[in-house]
Amino acid sequence: MKAPAPPASPWQLFYGGAHRLRRQWYRSRAARLPRPVVSVGNLHWGGSGKTPLVAAVAAHLRDRGLAVCILSRGYASQGRGVRVVSAGEGPLLGPLVAGDEPVLLAGELPGVAVVVGPDRHQAGLQALRRLDPAPGLFLLDDGFSHLRLHRDLDLVAFPAADPFGGGRLFPSGRLREPLASASRAHAAILTGVSGTDGQGAELAEALRPHGFRGPGFASVTRPGSPRRIGGGELSQDARVFLVTAIARPDAFTDTVRRLGLDIVGELRFPDHHRYPPASLARIAEAWRASGAEAVLTTAKDRVKLHGRLDVPLAELPIRAEPEPAFWEWLDGEIERIR
Known about the structure:
Rossmann fold, 2 domains, 9-stranded mixed beta sheet, 33% helix, globular
């Protein structure tokens, strides 16, 4: 594994310089919360396996007895201001108001609060005032680029299918920040691997020339059993019609195929698609024409389709399983920052 050298084009140099100036500006100006802040983020534009990793970290910290509150910006939502998506007992708001990923996390993580807002410092302060019990630790979802808030621990996810995004920034590449930004991270996690032996250490070594000094770990992304919404599992050879609005739909399709399900059709929408009525009608028509047993989708899409689509709906749950060394390292770091 080898990370590409920094790009030398004028535009890439200009964009990289703008990121450096932004980091320098916030270095002494970032607001602080009166509780430890752990961030899980990435350098890519979507599709890094970040959300399952956030869920795994939140569940681990909750099970250690910490009162965890996830702070998210609520990307692509129509809500305004600070919104409590969950006080730990399931979603209180829908995806249009709160965002699809916060609602997904709220449903999968009993005992974990979820609060969204564009200013996550203000969101954290309101969470401390409004939640009971008050949070003992904040977990930033997609927080690596949110420099306005000081964090005590930065975890950065790199997708195994495309760990370095070609080494180039938008618009000619797939990175939102230069690889040199990894120098701010405390740990790098290679997500979506089939086995963890040594791959995390290889990632860390590949990032050393870009200033990264922390440890590297690997995380397996493991599918659960496809399940019908409303109860019951799909049979192993069920005929399914796939519907997705995610950054890397090919990975979802490949996973479904490996599970042995019979894919008889597929519709792909842009990441974070809101599924307006025209899209719902298109899905229903395509499903009927396909002869499929059910529409199979991701957990993130399920929160936006459930109750709005008059067809049999099923989801394929996905979970992240970081290697044991990661949990040992994380536990030690949590003790340090507390």
